[in-house]
Amino acid sequence: GRRGLALDVVAVSAVIDACAKAGDAARAEGWFERGVAEGIEPNIFMYTSVIDAHAQTGSGDAAAQWMQRALDRRLSPTLVSYNAVINAYTRSGQVERVREWMQQAHDAGCAPDLTTFNSAIHACARRGDVAGMDRLVGELEAAGKRLDQVSYNTILDGCAKAGDAESAERWAAEMRAAGLKPNARTYAGMVSAYASAGGMERARAWF
């Protein structure tokens, strides 16, 4: 290491994680390879941090390749690892790949959590796929989970993308019924949905 200090797995993992949070995948990979070159046996946390770095830039295929490298080493990815790959594909709007990795997580014994579902809902929202969001909510509820404010706001964004004000109204009503208070993003989503559907008069009435 620099200044004669030997790198260990904890130090390298921390640096890779910092690179991931900065969305600097190239540096994350560089530190990973440097650690390996200095004799460090990479663990799943090192791999997950590199995957997360690619997730920050929506590089789904690169994230999946790093996951495969971890699997090739016979490491056991955690749900955090799978969620990072799912997030990467969410950011690039690849719903089919999101669904594939949700299934892979489930098959590996890592049951999708609310973070997983919110990512998948976001992927559908980017496309304005209201039916896809509805299906995911059904799966989420069947798994015994409940939507949170992030879930509802993401769904409203998707309704706006689709120009579906009626669905937006339905979800906003369900959000209130669930005891969740609308916030600025909620109202922005509703206004956008009405605007997309050409119903600004209804928007004013709703507020």
Automatic annotation (TrEMBL):
PPR repeats, residue ranges = 8-42, 43-77, 78-112, 113-147, 148-182
Q: Which NCBIfam families match?
A: PPR (TIGR00756)
Traced from the root, the source organism's taxonomic lineage reads: Eukaryota, Sar, Alveolata, Dinophyceae, Gonyaulacales
This protein is called Pentacotripeptide-repeat region of PRORP domain-containing protein
Query: What PANTHER family does the entry give?
Result: OS03G0856100 PROTEIN, OS12G0638900 PROTEIN
Q: Which organism is it from?
A: Alexandrium catenella (Red tide dinoflagellate)
Note the Gene3D superfamilies from the entry.
Tetratricopeptide repeat domain
Q: Which UniProt keywords apply?
A: Repeat
Do you know which Pfam families this protein is assigned to?
PPR, PPR_2, PPR_3
